[in-house]
Amino acid sequence: MKVSNDMAINLAHSEVRSLRAFFSLYVLLTLFILSFLAYFYFQSEKKMMLSHWRMELQLQSESFLPRLKKAHYNFAHNQSYPRSDTFSSGIYDIDKTAIFSTLRTPYVDLNEVISLNEGYIQLVIQPEFYYLGAKYIVLEVPDDGVWFSQTLQTIIIFFTLIFVLLLLSGWYLGKLFLRPMKEAVSLLDRFIKDTTHELNTPVATILSNIETINTQTVDDKTAKKLQRIDIASRTISTLYDDLTYLVLNHNIPTKDEELNLSELLHERIDYFDLAIKQKKLQLETEIAQGVSFFADRTKMTRLIDNLLSNAIKYNALKGELAVTLTSDQLSIANSGKGIAKEKLSTIFNRYVRADNVAGGFGIGLHIVSKIAKLYKIKLEIDSEPHKMTRITLSW
Question: Does residue 22 surpass a pLDDT of 50?
Fold first, then answer.
């Protein structure tokens, strides 16, 4: 017997969700680290470019300072400011106010020796003497942007290569980390498959033999024992049906038909009658007659059985069980343990159990969810711990 497609799909979905969560975090962390490195590489290249221009402009200043000195001493006769074809310049007094300027940019950072402002490289020099009242001399050349283009190209190429390499490494690590979970789930699925196969004959034998016993001919003590055996057998039978549906669902032919949901609901309540009486539950039913639904009988039986089974199993002794059916809604509520708020969002996931004490595989509500989704039934759950739980199906 092969593991069912349904199991493979569920396993794949769980694996994909876990891998997606890990991979998203990994990608974000990778992008952050690469952006951090790219920023520092860019700043390093900018610093190297400015260092180069600092030496270049300092050489240019050696020819400019004598000309400024000459203009200072001849200012009374010739009020002209020295200019250059290779750079723009400006002089500022001790209050950082412009005296003369041919600079292309209005803003100058006089606190930085070399800087890049609005596409221009500016070198600030403080001469030994205040020629023409200049405390600061600024030399300026346009930035050709070659260093920027080359740096950006290098960042893009290496960023892409490293990012792809890290993505591949992250994907491999993610698959490696998820392997134990995948193996554990596969082992559990194989166990369920084998258990289902082995349960078939003994469950059928127990149920058929119990049905042949006439409880009217035995004493009360023996009748109660038989009743408990019957309840336990029906519980095992329900579990067997769930496991069969879970493992062999893709091999079970679907026969959708117009079902009398009212009659089916009465039938399944009768099936659980002994379990309801054993727990001394107060059953309240409000079942509209003649409610029909187009679906497969086996699937709808599994849906109703799991809802009733859970409502009984997780109910309090002498608690309340309410079953309501209208033309477009089925509601099953109990007054039992309830479900913690943090578990409500995951209660329909496979192998998730509301209460570890009550036992079970955690597959009942998962089956309910799958069948509801198949027939586009809206599934809602409302629960208050230690008070009540109500599951409502609307169509």
Answer: yes
| Tens of pLDDT, residues 23-51 | 888 889 989 999 999 999 999 999 999 99
Ramachandran area for residue 132 (φ above 0: left; ψ -120 to 50: alpha; else beta): left
Q: In angstroms, what CA-CA distances link 256 with 126, 260, 293, 295?
A: 92, 12, 9, 4
Question: Which one has a higher pLDDT value, 371 or 181?
Answer: 371
The token pair that represents 36 in the structure block: 């951090």
Buried b (16+ CB within 10 A) or exposed e, 212-238: eeeeeeeeeeeeeeeeeebbebbeebb
DSSP 138-188: EEEEE---HHHHHHHHHHHHHHHHHHHHHHHHHHHHHHHHHHHHHHHHHHH
Q: How many CA atoms lie within 13 A of 284 on its CB side?
A: 11
In degrees, to the nearest 5, what angle opens at C-alpha 303 toward C-alphas 313 and 181?
80
Computed over every residue of the chain, the mean pLDDT equals 82
Question: What's the start-to-end Cα distance of the chain, in Å?
Answer: 36
Q: How far apart are CA 314 and CA 138, in angstroms?
A: 83
- How many angstroms separate the Cα of 314 from the Cα of each of 24, 287, 332, 362, 364? 38, 22, 13, 13, 13
Closest by CA position to 21, among listed 164, 159, 177: 177
Q: What is the pLDDT of residues 357-375, one digit of tens each?
A: 555 556 778 888 888 988 9
Q: Sort strands 329-334 and 388-394 into parallel, antiparallel or unpaired.
A: antiparallel
